[in-house]
Amino acid sequence: MASFDRVDLIRARAVAERYRDLLLVLTDASLVVLAHRYETESIATLDERHFGVVQSLKGRPFTILPADRSGPSWMPAGFVGGELQGSQRCICLPEPGFL
């Protein structure tokens, strides 16, 4: 599990404030911060409502998995045995009640 420090929390609050009209919660905003840390613009979530609008900290749209993947498999290229291979990265958000 990724660590989340005070600086990350400040960034996440700024993201949530930027998208306050969407009612973006801190959990979703924290994924934007973590995606920036791990240098990815891919988010594995069913929350297309938020992540279809929210942009990365670099101002780019996110690739939403599985929604933005065509074909039978939504896993990113290089996803083998539960791990991404090479330089591919993805931030995953479990659905409510998953844990």
Q: Summed up, what is this model?
A:
By secondary structure, this protein is of the alpha/beta class.
Model description:
The protein is α/β, with parallel strands linked by helices. It has one domain. The protein is built from 3 helices and 5 strands; from the N terminus they run ααβαββββ. It has a 3-stranded parallel sheet. Helix 1 packs across helix 2. The longest helix has 13 residues, at 6-18. The chain is globular, with a radius of gyration of 13 Å. Residues 70-86 have low confidence and may be disordered.
Report the principal-axis shape.
globular
Structural class: alpha/beta
Q: In DSSP terms, counting alpha (H) and pi (I) runs of 4 or more, how many helices?
A: 3
Biggest beta sheet summary: 3 strands, parallel
User: How are helices and strands ordered from N to C?
Assistant: HHEHEEEE
Q: How many separate domains?
A: 1
